[in-house]
Each structure stands twice: as C-alpha cells, then as structure tokens.
Amino acid sequence: MKKPHWIEKEHLFAGKEYVCSCCGASFDEPWEECPACGVKMKKIKYDPVYVDEAEMLDILLGDE
Ligand SMILES: [Zn+2]
C-alpha cells in the first residue's frame, strides 16, 4: 500500500495545486489531512510534468 502524499502541480498561470494521491481531489494548499477523504499526509511530491509543459511553452513563444 502506498503512503499518502500530496502531488504538487504547478500551473503556468493558475499557481500551485495539490492533488491527493488517495482520492485525487485537488486543493490550492497542502493540508495536514486531505479535506476530501481525511487521510493524513506524509509528504509532498513534485510532479515534473508541468515543468515539461513550461519548457514547451517557452519553445513555442520563442523566449529563452
Ligand atoms: Zn484525499
């Protein structure tokens, strides 16, 4: 069984989002317990998918 954790996702324009690894609910800040399913969180894990998105956008916009 996996330990519950927040998956930190960073949106380019909407700020950060924390997704519960147990129930998939998302919130704008990392609570000690998930408000949706009540599980106690051990850690926050950064999801690098959004970093790739940001790099792609930079390429599309032609910025450095
Ligand atoms: Zn949850």
Report what the structure shows.
The protein is α+β, with helices and mostly antiparallel strands and 64 residues long. It has one domain. Helices cover 20% and strands 30% of the residues. A hairpin with a 3-residue loop joins strand 1 (5-11) and strand 2. The longest helix has 13 residues, at 49-61. The N and C termini lie far apart (42 Å). The model has no long low-confidence stretch (mean pLDDT 84). The chain binds zinc ion (ZN).
Secondary-structure element series = EEEEH
Give me the count of strands: 4
Low-confidence stretches: none
Strand content: 25-35%
Class inferred from helices and paired strands:
alpha+beta
Small-molecule components bound: zinc ion
Kindly state the percentage of residues in helix.
10-25%
User: What radius of gyration results from the CA coordinates?
Assistant: 14 Å
Mean pLDDT: 84
